[in-house]
Structures are given as structure tokens and as C-alpha cells.
Amino acid sequence: MSKKILIAEDETPMANALRLKLEHSGYEVSIAGDGEEAVRLLSDGHFDLALLDLVMPKKDGFSVLAFLQESKEITTPAIVASNLGQTEDRGRAESLGAIDYFVKSDISLADILDKVNNFFSRS
């Protein structure tokens, strides 16, 4: 059974590029275009991992992380993929339970795939 990944990303080209890369590697992928949709999808289905942007409309990624942290039923781990590179943002995301954090402009799609593969090989 393939692993299910939720991509919460409001930039459509980035979301589609990630989706294609992950699906090509055998993952089942869903996309949420904003934070509210991410919370709804996480509540309605089981995901093995979430790739979460921080700057999104309706509900930001920090709010989605807080939702995951407070939820007793949802145990989906989250890797933050953001354009926010400040130490404070990274620290806040980690304090809300993010298991990894990277700045999108500093990493290739292949490196993102490596992070996802490494996560699943450890779990």
C-alpha cells in the first residue's frame, strides 16, 4: 500500500511539481490550496505525512500545525516547506511539532523527495 501525503501549498505550480515528483515515486498525493482545506482533508482522511507551507490564505501553516498538535485523533507528522527562512519561524514551527523544516528556494524537488523517502525509511 502506498503512503499518503498531503501537500498544503497555495502556489499551484509548486504544488503540482511536488505532486508529480511524489506520485512518480509511488506516493499517493492530495493537495490543499489553503490552510482551511488542509485542516478539512486532515480531519476527513488518513495521511502518513503532510508537506506544509506556512504562508497560505484562510489559515496559515502555523495554525494547521497547532491544529495537528491539539488533535487527539490525527497523528499526521508534518514537514514544513516554506519561503520563511528566519530562525524564529523555524523555532515556532518546531515548537508546534514540525518534524523537519526547509526553505523552498534553497532546495530542489529531488532533495525534497529525499527528505520524504528518509522520513519513511526511519518510521
Query: What general form does the structure show?
Result: globular
CATH topology: Rossmann fold
Largest beta-sheet details = 5 strands, parallel
Q: Uncertain spans, ≥5 residues at pLDDT below 50? A: none
Would you identify the CATH H-level superfamily?
Response regulator
CATH class: Alpha Beta
Counting structural domains, the number is: 1
Concise synopsis of the structure shown:
The protein is α/β, with parallel strands linked by helices.
Molecular structure report:
This protein has 123 residues and is of the alpha/beta class. It has a single domain, classed as Response regulator (Rossmann fold, 3-Layer(aba) Sandwich), CATH 3.40.50. It is built from five helices and five strands, in the order E-H-E-H-E-H-E-H-E-H. Helix 1 links the parallel strand 1 and strand 2. Helix 1 crosses helix 5 and helix 2 packs parallel to helix 3. The two termini are 15 Å apart. The mean pLDDT is 91.
Q: Mind sketching the topology for me?
A:
Layout: E1 4-8, H1 12-24, E2 28-32, H2 35-44, E3 49-52, H3 61-70, E4 78-82, H4 87-95, E5 100-103, H5 109-122
Helix pairs in contact: 1-5, 2-3
Annotation keywords:
single chain; 123 residues; alpha/beta; Rossmann fold; 5 helices; 5 strands; globular
